[in-house]
Amino acid sequence: MSLARASSSAGVALAPVKIAPVELVDFLSVRKPNYESIWEFQRQRVESIALEESSECIIFCEHELVATKGRRAKAENILDPQVSLFEIERGGDVTLHAPGQLVIYPLLKLKGTHFPLGLNEYLRFCETVLIEFLAGCGLEAGRFGPTGVWIKRSNGEVKKIASIGVAVRRWITYHGIALNVCNDLEDFKRIRPCDFEWSVMTSLRAEGLKLSVHQTAVELKKLFTKHLKSGDDLER
Questions:
Q1: 147-181 burial, b for 16+ CB within 10 Å, e for fewer?
Q2: Catalytic residue among 57, 61, 182, 194
């Protein structure tokens, strides 16, 4: 599948005239691009944004079963040598993508309109959007651990529901968020996610919520749009 064609049909600005508002790029189609294709799309789009040929965007997608190694990844955190593995530019350790997990890649300018204070402000923004969504689902979500979003259960047990790993090129973010929706948590046995035991992970389904990846994406698109328009909701 040509992601260049897909992005054109989604309305990506191709001429360096007037940059459009942040575009929502949806790859949650029946024929989903593979991990490597979307990774390449991100890199090309970052260059296009830097040259002011395209607008900033947020990509919504779902990956096949793959593990990714960030810049600080420990080799011993890959427990299954047969898992498809990509070494990528983001920070952090090892994480896993799989069907049933919503992956969100915001390609946004740092020190621009939205994030004048830079990377830390951007990371708090991503967490804030997810926490608001999860709170709306009736979950107690927060920053109960390292970067990412965590759930605190009624018995006090804390579980990780979303991972956040970011790269920055030419002051533009890429890579991003992996929110566990209805994926098989047993897949995390293939790695030590972000240097934790696999059992630390949870999902919307494991917390009793029957939402699909598509339904979750619809709600998060609304929240990202709202927060980027308001610009006053960030915890600075």
A1: bbbbbeeeeeeebbbbbbbbbbeebbbbbbbbbbb
A2: 194
Whether the per-residue pLDDT at 232 is higher than 50: the answer is: no
Residue 126 appears among annotated catalytic residues: no
**Closest to 162 in 3D by CA, of 121, 220, 122, 102:** 102
Residues with Cβ within 8 Å of 204's Cβ and at least 6 positions away in sequence, in order, are: 137, 161, 179, 180, 181, 182, 211, 216
State the pLDDT at residue 51: 96
For 42, residues 6+ apart whose C-beta sits below 8 A from its C-beta are: 59, 105, 107, 174, 175
Reported pTM:
0.89
Which residue carries 């970011």 as its tokens? 166
**C-alpha span between 227 and 219 (Å, rounded):** 13
CA 221 from chain centre, in angstroms, equals 12
CB 110 within 8 A of CB 119: yes
